[in-house]
Every structure is written in C-alpha cells, then in structure tokens.
Design brief:
This protein is of the alpha/beta class and 347 residues long. It has a domain of 235 residues: 3-Layer(aba) Sandwich (Rossmann fold), CATH 3.40.50.10490. The chain contains 7 helices and 8 strands; from the N terminus they run αβββαβαβααβαββα. α2 packs parallel to α7, α3 runs parallel beside α7 and α4 crosses α5.
Length: 347
C-alpha cells in the first residue's frame, strides 16, 4: 500500500480544523497551531494515527470479520457507500436507527422482512397481486432498503466501526462503546478524540479530506481481504496436500496390509508344509528306526536261530557220541559173547 505524504494531505485540506472558539480542549495534542482564528491539525499525528488504524483494520479484516462504515454527512455519503459496496462491507449512510447495534435482534427481523419482500417480488405470484398491494409492497421495500440496505447482508454484529465525524454520529459511538466494539473515527478539532479507540485527526467537513482518509482505510481493508484469501488458498492447498499424503499413506498401508496377509498366508503355508513335511520326516525317521529295529530284531532272531541250530547240532553230536560208545560196547560185548561161544564150542 502506498503511504500518504504531507503534500497529499495538504492538497486535500486535511490540516484545516474548526474555528478556535468551537474547539474541544481534548484535541489539544493533535493541534499544530492557530492561524486566522482556525486551528491547524498536526499532520505528523495524522500520518502516525492513520498507519496505526490501517494496521489494526487489516488485522481485523484478515481474521474474516466485518467492518461497518458509518457516515450520514452529505459530503461523506457517496464516498463511503461506493467504497463499502466495492469491498462488500456493511454501511450506514442515511439515518442511524437507534439500537442498530444494541438491539440487533430487532434489526435482524427487519432484515428478514426485507429479504422476504425481495423474494416475493421475484416470484410470479407477485404479478397476481392487485396494483395497490404491489405499490404498498414496493414502498415498504424502498423504505427498508433506504435505511437497512447497507446492512442487508450483516448476519451478526460487526467487529469494528469506522465513523466519519464522531460528534454527528454520537448514537453509533455510544452503542459501539456499550458493546465494546473498536471505533475507528475521523476527529476534527471540535470533536472528542477519547471516544474513539483509533482516532484520526483530520478535517471531517471537506469532501477531498474525507475521500483521501476513507480510501486509505479501505485500501487497508482490501489488503486484509487479499491476505485472508491468500491464507485460505494456502490452507486449502495445505489441506489438499495433507489429504494427498493421507491418501498415499492409506494406499501404502493398504498395500502393506495386502502384503502382510500374503506374507502371513505364505508363512502359514510354509508352516503347514513344514508341519506336513515334519510328520513325513518323522514317519520316515520312524520307518527308518522301525526298519533298523526290525533289522536288529531279524539279526537277533537269525543269531538266535543260528545259536539254536549250533546248540542243536552240538547236542545231537553229544547225544550221538554216547550212542556210538554204547554201540561199540554192545558190539564188543557181542563179539566177546560170540568169541566165548566159539571157544566153548571148540572145547
């Protein structure tokens, strides 16, 4: 935002105050000098307070809240309305209704009524109404639109109020003070600067002076809106990136989850195969052991059989020897008997 210079303010006549006899003593810190019975405003203070007010306004708008512009002076009406409409901010340029802030619930009812009338006029049933009824509806709409048209889109209380001439708009000032709403105001030498949270000492009667101050403030509001849009875009991009990241992480997790069951299935299959193979191995081992046992048993049996046969043979041999001895003895005895018989015969 281009900063204002002393020359810009001097050309616009911002430094001109009211007559010295009409001054407010509380404006003394903002008065530079007195000349030809008129107070001259200190432009150093004007520039400093303008920067402070614009920074505060920017932060308020950046947070996404609304600023209400109030100016019912003839000189300020057109400027404030034009700038407020451009920035889509609420404004009051006709008459400040008592309780517009403090009795906002009633004002909202009137706004609802205005919106319902606008809907009715757009509907085809409006053409079926009698001419007099249509005339009454249009008159009521114009009346409401004149007073509340500037705040028709206001759904809640504004975050701040910008006022041109706090002395003229004293009701708005009191209501804002009651609700602790920050007040940004142009204050002339005949005004009380203490009622405003951000007073801007300037000439509030000249058209050029009002124009330069209001446009400077609205530029700050515009910057705040752009910054908010930028923040929103960044936040949206960040959210999209986070969503993408989450999606990627989700897909990775799904892939890992898909892999895990596969690995689990593989492991389970391997375990099953191992279990299956283990019994086979066990069976083989068992068969081998059984075969070994059988072989050992068979060898033992064969050994036993051999031993038994050997024993049988030895026994048979042992048995045969006595029989042979008996035979030999019997044969010897028979021979002896035969020989004895032959000897007896010879004799």
């Amino acid at each position: 935002m281009t900063k204002l210079t002393y020359k810009d303010l001097l050309d616009a006549g911002v430094h001109f105050g009211h007559l010295t006899r009409k001054w407010d003593p509380r404006m003394a810190p903002y008065i530079f000098m007195e000349r030809n019975g008129i107070h001259i405003i200190d432009l150093n203070k004007t520039l400093a307070t303008l920067d402070e007010a614009s920074n505060a306004m920017r932060t308020i708008v950046r947070s996404g809240r609304k600023v209400m512009f109030v100016a019912t002076k003839k000189q300020a009406k057109s400027i404030v309305e034009e700038e407020a409409v451009r920035l889509r901010m609420p404004y009051v340029t006709e008459r400040w209704l008592g309780g517009m802030l403090t009795n906002f619930t009633t004002i909202r009812k009137s706004l609802k009524k205005l919106s319902s009338i606008e809907k009715l006029m757009k509907d085809e049933s409006y053409l079926n109404l009698a001419k007099r009824e249509r005339l009454m509806v249009t008159r009521e709409k114009e009346k409401l639109n004149k007073v509340l048209g500037g705040i028709s889109e206001l759904t809640r209380l504004p975050a701040a109020v910008f006022i041109v001439d706090v002395k003229k708009e004293h009701i708005a000032v009191k209501e804002a003070q009651k609700l602790n709403i920050p007040i940004f105001a142009m204050v002339d030498t005949n005004s009380n600067p203490t009622v405003a949270d951000f007073p801007i000492p300037a000439n509030d009667d000249a058209y050029k002076s009002i124009d330069i101050i209001v446009k400077y403030i609205t530029k700050a509001v515009e910057e705040g809106l752009l910054e908010r849009k930028k923040d929103k875009d960044e936040l949206r991009l960040k959210q999209e990136e986070d969503e993408k990241r989450q999606m990627d992480e989700g897909t990775q997790r799904e892939a890992v989850a898909e892999k895990k069951p596969a690995t689990r299935e593989k492991k389970v299959g391997e375990a099953k195969e191992e279990k299956k193979s283990e019994p086979k191995d066990d069976a083989k081992a068992e068969t081998k052991t059984v075969a070994k046992i059988d072989t050992t048993k068979s060898t033992e049996k064969t050994e036993e059989k051999v031993e038994a046969k050997v024993e049988e043979k030895t026994e048979a041999k042992v048995e045969e020897k006595p029989a042979d001895e008996a035979k030999t003895k019997s044969e010897e005895k028979a021979k002896e008997t035969v020989e004895a018989a032959e000897d007896a015969d010879k004799k």
